[in-house]
Amino acid sequence: MNPDLIIRLAAFGLINLLLVIAGYSIVKRVYLMLSWVLFLLSIGVIYLLFVHQHPILKMLAIIATTFTAMKLVAVSATHHKTAFKLTFKQWCFFAGAWAGMRPQPFETLGGPAPTGAAKMVKFGISRIVLGALLIWLTRLLNYYELISSPSAEYAVTAMLLLVGFSLILHFGILSISAGMWRLQGADTCYLFRKPATALSLTEFWGKRWNLAFSEMTSVAIFRPLKQRLGNGGALLISFIFSGLLHELALSVPVNAGYGLPALYFLIHALVVMLERIIRKYSPNFFANKIIAHAWVFFWLVVPAPLLFHPQFIACILRPMAGL
Questions:
Q1: Which ranges carry the Wax synthase domain (predicted)?
Q2: What's the rounded Cα separation, in Å, for the pair 214 and 193?
Q3: How remote is the C-alpha of 7 from its chain's centroid?
């Protein structure tokens, strides 16, 4: 391995380790402003360390550091009003080895194992297998050039790979992680809870998809701004912040597509606000499950090329699948 890359990876590990170790004192003393400063500083340093590295490596480094640093912000914001109960050991496992943003499940780490761990692990393994099959199918389609139209090939490949990698990571690895931590006594749960059953975009983002992310934006952005800006203003800023974080993950690594992920989340913010109006004046609109599912599917899929823009597909998604 390239010695220069080894040094950069070591620096990445050291930065995240320092965030975890120093974070324990920071969150206990509720240094919220310092948490934000460390978040911005750590992301900036990681960007400079990996700016000339492969986009996949750059993306992984940025995402990992973002989750570690944002835990300091989220937990500090939460514990303005509630006591912080984690021991240093529990904090280290929570901050360094779990994707969720709520520390409470790790208060029981080391105690009796909650039920359901084996089911989570089995579920995760099954999703990894399904995701791997989709990626294998995509490679076959490309190898034998079974789709003649370039635009159709691009769309089908992108869709299959996005679903395949999502099954592996979101529903596979994270479910196994939740199950394994339950075996150690932590009260961890699925972070992706049957998103296909969502009957509105509000339900999708708030209760179904990536609860770690929704928890983070809720405690770090929405709740602090709610009293100042009201529900609508806080909601809008929360979605914009989510868009900016996705810019870090999807645009910065490929140095292209800037503004598109943010626009995707801005559209979703406006749709969530629209759903509130619809519920007020037409409460039966979402009662029809067919209409509700079609509504959610439309707003998730139609603007999706803004979020997963062509440069991300070409420079990260396809290479990850070996295409």
A1: 191-252
A2: 12
A3: 27
Q: Are residues 322 and 289 in the same domain?
A: yes
Give yes or no for a contact between 216 and 74, defined as CB atoms under 8 angstroms apart: yes
Contact assessment for residue 248 and residue 51, using Cβ atoms and an 8 Å cutoff: no
- 79 and 133 both lie in a single domain: no
How far is it, in rounded angstroms, from Cα 229 to Cα 143?
Answer: 53
DSSP string over 37-84: HHHHHHHHHHHHHHTTS-HHHHHHHHHHHHHHHHHHHHHHHHTTTS--
Joined tokens for residue 132: 């791997």
- CA-nearest of 166, 98, 176, 172 to 128 is 172
Q: Which residues, 6 or more positions from 288, have their beta carbon under 8 angstroms from its beta carbon?
A: none
Q: Specify the pLDDT at position 81.
A: 66
Instruction: Say if residue 236 is in the same domain as residue 323.
Output: yes
Determine the Cα–Cα distance for residues 24 and 17; give it in Å rounded to an integer: 11
The reply to whether 23 and 78 lie within a common domain is: yes
The DSSP secondary-structure symbol of 213 reads H
pLDDT digits (tens, 9 = 90+) for 73-109: 999 998 766 788 999 999 999 999 999 999 999 999 9
Distance CA 102, CA 34 (A): 19
Tell whether the model's pLDDT for residue 186 goes beyond 90. yes
pLDDT at 237: 97
Q: Which residues of 293-311 are buried (b: 16+ CB within 10 A; e: fewer)?
A: bebbeebbeebebbbbbeb
Does residue 100 share a domain with residue 46?
Answer: yes
The torsion angles phi and psi of 120, rounded to 5 degrees, stand at -65, -45
Place of tokens 């770690």: 212
Which residue range(s) make up the domain with 288? 191-323
pLDDT at 80: 67
pLDDT exceeds 90 at position 148: no
**Cβ-contact 295, 279 below 8 angstroms:** no
